[in-house]
Write a structure and sequence with these properties.
about 140 residues; two-stranded antiparallel ribbon; mainly alpha
Length: about 140
Amino acid sequence: MSTHAPNEARVIPLRPQASPPASGGTARTPQRPAGAPQPTAPKEPLWRDVVGDVLRRERLAQERTLQDVAQSARISMPYLSELERGRKEASSEVLAAAARALGLGLGDLLSLAQGELARHTPSRVIGRGRSAPTARYDGLCLVA
């Protein structure tokens, strides 16, 4: 048996409603209902997004057009655009060509991308109190 009137709709809110302000005038934050999913940690960026961001940032820093870099790298302009937007996963040959067109080596490009990825990724603890190894590119080689 239903407890509501026959011509009334029963409304179930999708989000918890905020409680009315307390006597102090400040609103209380809504309590999470039992069984509600806990908020998740921010997602780690995808490698192709990070590499694309680095390519675009380097190209714009040099004040070069997509067409100019694509011609120099001998890849199509739409494909380079897709790479910069993180829509395509490029082969190492294509990444090396794009890096060379920007005056970088493949290692330089990947090192810049790794640095970006490290900034966006929280460090994790591995095993018995040891933290994850970190490395950086000093211009000549990868230093642990």
